[in-house]
C-alpha cells in the first residue's frame, strides 16, 4: 500500500476516474445555490441533484469530484471519536444514466488494489451488500474479493423517502488486530459494526428505484451511480495513523495549537486531547465557511459558525489559551489545502479578521454566561436544591455557547448535578424545529422521463428578436407527448424562440403564440429550461396547436424592455457595492422583474444612509454617462484573462461564455438580456435595504418610470407631512420634525415626573393602612395603577420596611396587576411571595410567579382584584 499525502490521494482519485471518461466537476461552494432544502452542501451528490432528478442533462453523464462538505448534526462527537468532523471532503464518481454495477465495481477494486493506484492488499478488503442484490455479490467475487469477505446486511439499502433509492455496497479496510477495541465475541466486531478495526472506505449506491409517495418502489427510467469516499478516512489508512487527526490534513494545525497552549502536547492515545481535535476540526470548518461567504450571526449558517467558534474558544481555555487565537490558524488551514482549494489562502486576511472579531465578541458573552450560571447556582444553594434545570443548561449552551460538559463541571464543583434528560429534551426540540424549517436535507426530485427523452434542438434568438416565425417541434400535455392540443395547459418546444427562459435571477418572458393568419392561439405564461437545455414554453392554449406547424412567436416588448433595464442595473449595482462596501462583497442571489430588481449580497452590517446615497450616485452617474452595453461570446479562459470577467453568483458556465461589458466599469459572465446603453435606464433609486438571513443583506431598487413614480410618491408624502406640521417650505421639515421630537421628549419627562409624584402620594396613603394578620404586619390595597407603578411602590416598601408583607393590586387599560413582596423575617416563617401570587392570580384570570421575596402576576379581570386581596389575607392566615 502506498504512503501518499492527502493532496496526492485527492489528485490520484480524480485522475483515475478521468481515465475512465469522467469530467471533473469543481468543488462547489459550501453555501448551497438555489437549494432551500440544504443549510450546507453536505455530500458529494448534493450539488449534482439537478442531474440525478433529470432537471438538467449533463454534457457528460460521467462525473467525478472532490467536494468540500459540512455536517453538524452530531457535533458533540467531534474530538471524542477517531473520525467525526464537521468539515470533510467527499470523493465521488457518478453515473447519470450511463454505466452501472458491471463497470463501477471493477473500477472501485482497481483503484483500491492496483499497484498503479493505491495498491491496497485485496485480502484486507471487506464489502457489505444488500441480501437480495445477488448481482453485486457476484461481481465482487469476480473481481477478487473472497466469498467470506462479502457480507449480506439488510441495512445496505439507501432510501431517504420519496425519490431515487436503491441497494448500496460499502467497502471496509481491515486495519488489523492492533486496532481492535472490542472483545472477539462482541456483536459489533465485524465489518460494518461500531468498531475501530474495520474502517469504512467507500460507499457505492446503485440508484435504480423510485420510492413513490404511495410507498411503492418502481424502477427509475435512468439508473444512476452515486459513490462517496471520505478523503480524511482514506488518508488515515494510507498514512497509518490511529485517527484522522494525525494525518497531514490536521496535524499541522494541532502542532500550532500546541505552541499556543500552556505547554500541552497532543497524544492520540490520551483522552484529554479532545480539545486539540475540536479546535483543529473547527478551524477548518469556519475558515472554509467564512471563505465561501457565510458570516457569524444568530441564525441559520451564521449560527453554526458562531457556535463552532465558541466551542473552539472554550476548548482553547482548557489548553490554557486565553484570548483570541483561532484566527491565527487560518493561514495553516490555507497552506494545507492550497493545492486544491486556494481560496482560503487568497482570503486569509478577511477570514482571520472575521473570526478574530467573533472571538472578541464571545469573550463578552462568555462573561455574561458565567454571570447567569453563577446566579443559577446561588439560587439553588439558597433554596436547598441540587439540580440545575435542563432548560437552564440548554440556555447556557444555546445562547452563551457553554457545552453541557462545561456546565456539568461547574455544577460538580458546587456539589450540584444537571438535569441532562431535560437538556436533551430541549436539544431535540431545537433540532426538530430546524428540521421542520429546512425540510428533507437530502431531498431529490423524481425524474421526468418524458422531458429527459426530448432531444429536439432549439435555439434562443431573443437577444436580437422580439418576434419570429418558428416550427412547433414538441407538445407535452400531462407529462405525455401529443400531436396536437386544442385547449388548456401545455408545454411547447419550438426549433427556435425569442422567449427568454428563467435563469440567473432574470424572470422569463411572457407573450403570445399566433397562427399564420395573426390569430392568437396560446398565451405564454412561463418559460423554463428543459433537461436537455431547450426553452420550454408553458402556455394556456385557446385554439388548436399542431406539431410541426409554423407559428409566430411574440414576446411582450414592454415587459422585456423593463427587465432588460433592471438587469443592467443589477450589474452596475454589483460593482458599486464592491466599491462602497468592499471588494469581498459578492452576490448571493438576485431577481430581475419588470417592476423592480432585488440584489442580495454578503454582509453582516446594514448599509448606512451615506452608503445608500453613494451607491445611488455611482449608478446614476453611469446611467447619465450613456455608456454602450456590449456583449461578446468568448471561450471562458479568454474571457477571464483578457476581459477580467467575473462570474455572477456561483453560476455554472460552459467552455463558451457570453460576456456583458459596461465600459471598463463592469465585466460579467451573463446570459441575460440587457439595455443597449445605460442611458435607457433613465434613473436608479434604492427603495429598501434589509437583512434576509445570516450574513446576507438585500437591496431592492427601481429604474426608469418606476423610479420616477417612487420619488413622486415620496415627495407627495413629504408635502403632506409639511402641511400637517404647518410648515411652508419643504426644506424646513427636518428642523421642524427634530423640534417636535425634542418637545415630545420634554413632555414625556414631565409626565414621568408627575407619575413619580403621584406614586409617592399613593405610597403614603397605601402604606398607612397596616393590618395585623396572624402576627404579620400586612399592607393589602388596590389602586388605579399599572404594573410599573406597583413595582416602584414595592421597591419603596422594601427600602422603608413598612410591613412584613405587601400585597398590591392595580388596574389600568382594562388589565389587572398584582404584586406581592415578603420581608426576610416573614420568609423565615414560611411565607413565599411566589406561592402567594400563584394562589391569588386566578381571581384576575391571570398567572404569574417570582422569587420568595418578590412576585407578580397579570390578568384580564380587574373586577377580581377585591377577591384577590381577600384571598391573599386568607392565605396569610394559614401560615
TrEMBL record:
Its main location: cytoplasm. GO terms for biological process: alanyl-tRNA aminoacylation. SUPFAM superfamilies: Class II aaRS and biotin synthetases (SSF55681), Putative anticodon-binding domain of alanyl-tRNA synthetase (AlaRS) (SSF101353), ThrRS/AlaRS common domain (SSF55186), Translation proteins (SSF50447). Keywords: Aminoacyl-tRNA synthetase, ATP-binding, Coiled coil, Cytoplasm, Ligase, Metal-binding, Nucleotide-binding, Protein biosynthesis, RNA-binding, tRNA-binding, Zinc. It is found in: Cytoplasm. InterPro entries: aa-tRNA-synth_II/BPL/LPL (IPR045864), Ala-tRNA-lgiase_IIc (IPR002318), Ala-tRNA-ligase_IIc_anticod-bd (IPR018162), Ala-tRNA-synth_IIc_core (IPR018165), Ala-tRNA-synth_IIc_N (IPR018164), Ala-tRNA_ligase (IPR050058), Ala_tRNA_ligase_euk/bac (IPR023033), DHHA1_dom (IPR003156). Its EC number is 6.1.1.7. The keyword Secreted does not apply. Zn(2+) binds at residues 567, 571, 670, 674. Residues 737-764 form a coiled coil. It catalyses: tRNA(Ala) + L-alanine + ATP = L-alanyl-tRNA(Ala) + AMP + diphosphate. PANTHER family: ALANINE--TRNA LIGASE, CYTOPLASMIC, ALANYL-TRNA SYNTHETASE. Belongs to the class-II aminoacyl-tRNA synthetase family. This is Alanine--tRNA ligase.
Amino acid at each position: 500500500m502506498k504512503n501518499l499525502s492527502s493532496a496526492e490521494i485527492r489528485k490520484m482519485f480524480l485522475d483515475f476516474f478521468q481515465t475512465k471518461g469522467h469530467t471533473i466537476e469543481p468543488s462547489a461552494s459550501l453555501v448551497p445555490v438555489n437549494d432551500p432544502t440544504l443549510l450546507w452542501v453536505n455530500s458529494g451528490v448534493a450539488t449534482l441533484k439537478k442531474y440525478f432528478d433529470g432537471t438538467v442533462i449533463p454534457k457528460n453523464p460521467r462525473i467525478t469530484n472532490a467536494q468540500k462538505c459540512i455536517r453538524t448534526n452530531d457535533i458533540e462527537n467531534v474530538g471524542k471519536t477517531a473520525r467525526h468532523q464537521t468539515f470533510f471532503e467527499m470523493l465521488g464518481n457518478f453515473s447519470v444514466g450511463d454505466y452501472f454495477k458491471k463497470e463501477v465495481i471493477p473500477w472501485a477494486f482497481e483503484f483500491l488494489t492496483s499497484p498503479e493506484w493505491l495498491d491496497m492488499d485485496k485480502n484486507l478488503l471487506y464489502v457489505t451488500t444488500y441480501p437480495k442484490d445477488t448481482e453485486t455479490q457476484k461481481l465482487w467475487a469476480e473481481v477478487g474479493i473472497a466469498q467470506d469477505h462479502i457480507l449480506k446486511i439488510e441495512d445496505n439499502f439507501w432510501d431517504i423517502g420519496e425519490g431515487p433509492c436503491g441497494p448500496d455496497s460499502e467497502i471496509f479496510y481491515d486495519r488489523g488486530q492492533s486496532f481492535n477495541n472490542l472483545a472477539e465475541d462482541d456483536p459489533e466486531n465485524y465489518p460494518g459494526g461500531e468498531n475501530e478495526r474495520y474502517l469504512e472506505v467507500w460507499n457505492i449506491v446503485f440508484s435504480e428505484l423510485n420510492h413513490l409517495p404511495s410507498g411503492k418502489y418502481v424502477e427509475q427510467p435512468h439508473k444512476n451511480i452515486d459513490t462517496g469516499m471520505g478523503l480524511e478516512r482514506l488518508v488515515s489508512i494510507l498514512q497509518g495513523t490511529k485517527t484522522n487527526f494525525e494525518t497531514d490534513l490536521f496535524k499541522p494545525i494541532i502542532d500550532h495549537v500546541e505552541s499556543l497552549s500552556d505547554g500541552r502536547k497532543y497524544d492520540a492515545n490520551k483522552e484529554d486531547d479532545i480539545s486539540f481535535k475540536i479546535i483543529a476540526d473547527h478551524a477548518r470548518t469556519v475558515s472554509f465557511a467564512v471563505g465561501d461567504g457565510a458570516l457569524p450571526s444568530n441564525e441559520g449558517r451564521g449560527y453554526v459558525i458562531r457556535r463552532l467558534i465558541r466551542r473552539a474558544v472554550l476548548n482553547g481555555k482548557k489548553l490554557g489559551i486565553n484570548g483570541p487565537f483561532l484566527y491565527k490558524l487560518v493561514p495553516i488551514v490555507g497552506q494545507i489545502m492550497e493545492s486544491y482549494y486556494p481560496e482560503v489562502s487568497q482570503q486569509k486576511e478577511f477570514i482571520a479578521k472575521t473570526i478574530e472579531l467573533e472571538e472578541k465578541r464571545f469573550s463578552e458573552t462568555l462573561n455574561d454566561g458565567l454571570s447567569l450560571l453563577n446566579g443559577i447556582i446561588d439560587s439553588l444553594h439558597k433554596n436547598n436544591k441540587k439540580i440545575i434545570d435542563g432548560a437552564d443548561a440548554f440556555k447556557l449552551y444555546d445562547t452563551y455557547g457553554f457545552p453541557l460538559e462545561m456546565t456539568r463541571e461547574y455544577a460538580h464543583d458546587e456539589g450540584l448535578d444537571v438535569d441532562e434528560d431535560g437538556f436533551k429534551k430541549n436539544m431535540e426540540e431545537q433540532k426538530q424545529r430546524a428540521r421542520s424549517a429546512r425540510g428533507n436535507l437530502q431531498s431529490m426530485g423524481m425524474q421526468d422521463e418524458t422531458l429527459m427523452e426530448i432531444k429536439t434542438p432549439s435555439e434562443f434568438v431573443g437577444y436580437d428578436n422580439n418576434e419570429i416565425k418558428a416550427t412547433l417541434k414538441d407538445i407535452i400535455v400531462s407529462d405525455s407527448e401529443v400531436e396536437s392540443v386544442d385547449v388548456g395547459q401545455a408545454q411547447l418546444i419550438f426549433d427556435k424562440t425569442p422567449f427568454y427562459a428563467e435563469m440567473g435571477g432574470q424572470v422569463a418572458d411572457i407573450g403570445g403564440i399566433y397562427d399564420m393568419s395573426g390569430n392568437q392561439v396560446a398565451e405564454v405564461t412561463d418559460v423554463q429550461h428543459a433537461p436537455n437545455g431547450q426553452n420550454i414554453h408553458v402556455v394556456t392554449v385557446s385554439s388548436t396547436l399542431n406539431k410541426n406547424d409554423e407559428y409566430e412567436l411574440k414576446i411582450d416588448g414592454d415587459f422585456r424592455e423593463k427587465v432588460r433595464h433592471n438587469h443592467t442595473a443589477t450589474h452596475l449595482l454589483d460593482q458599486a457595492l464592491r466599491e462602497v462596501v468592499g471588494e469581498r462583497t459578492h452576490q448571493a442571489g438576485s431577481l430581475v422583474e419588470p417592476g423592480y430588481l432585488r440584489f442580495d449580497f454578503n454582509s453582516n452590517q446594514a448599509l448606512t444612509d451615506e452608503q445608500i446615497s453613494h451607491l445611488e450616485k455611482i449608478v446614476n452617474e453611469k446611467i447619465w454617462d450613456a455608456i454602450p452595453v456590449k456583449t461578446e461570446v468568448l471561450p471562458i479562459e479568454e474571457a477571464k484573462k483578457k476581459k477580467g470577467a467575473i462570474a455572477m453568483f456561483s453560476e455554472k458556465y460552459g467552455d463558451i461564455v457570453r460576456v456583458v461589458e459596461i465600459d471598463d466599469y463592469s465585466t460579467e459572465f451573463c446570459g441575460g438580456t440587457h439595455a443597449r446603453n445605460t442611458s435607457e435606464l433613465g434613473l436608479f433609486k434604492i427603495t429598501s435595504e434589509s437583512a434576509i438571513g445570516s450574513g446576507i443583506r438585500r437591496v431592492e431598487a427601481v429604474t426608469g418610470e418606476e423610479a420616477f413614480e417612487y420619488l413622486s410618491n415620496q415627495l407627495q408624502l413629504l408635502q403632506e407631512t409639511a402641511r400637517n406640521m404647518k410648515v411652508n417650505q419643504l426644506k424646513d421639515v427636518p428642523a421642524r420634525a427634530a423640534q417636535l421630537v425634542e418637545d415630545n421628549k420634554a413632555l414625556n419627562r414631565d409626565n414621568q415626573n408627575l407619575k413619580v409624584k403621584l406614586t409617592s402620594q399613593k405610597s403614603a396613603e397605601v402604606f398607612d393602612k397596616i393590618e395585623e394578620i396572624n402576627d404579620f404586619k400586612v399592607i393589602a390595597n388596590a389602586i388605579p395603577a399599572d404594573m410599573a407603578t406597583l413595582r416602584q411602590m414595592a421597591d419603596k416598601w422594601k427600602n422603608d420596611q413598612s410591613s412584613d408583607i405587601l400585597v398590591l393590586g392595580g388596574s389600568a387599560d382594562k388589565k389587572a396587576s398584582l404584586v406581592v413582596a415578603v420581608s426576610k423575617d416573614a420568609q423565615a416563617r414560611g411565607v413565599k411571595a411566589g406561592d402567594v401570587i400563584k394562589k391569588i392570580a386566578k381571581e384576575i384570570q391571570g398567572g404569574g410567579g417570582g422569587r420568595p421575596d418578590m412576585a407578580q402576576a397579570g390578568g384580564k379581570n380587574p373586577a377580581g382584584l377585591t377577591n384577590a386581596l381577600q384571598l391573599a389575607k386568607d392565605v396569610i392566615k394559614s401560615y
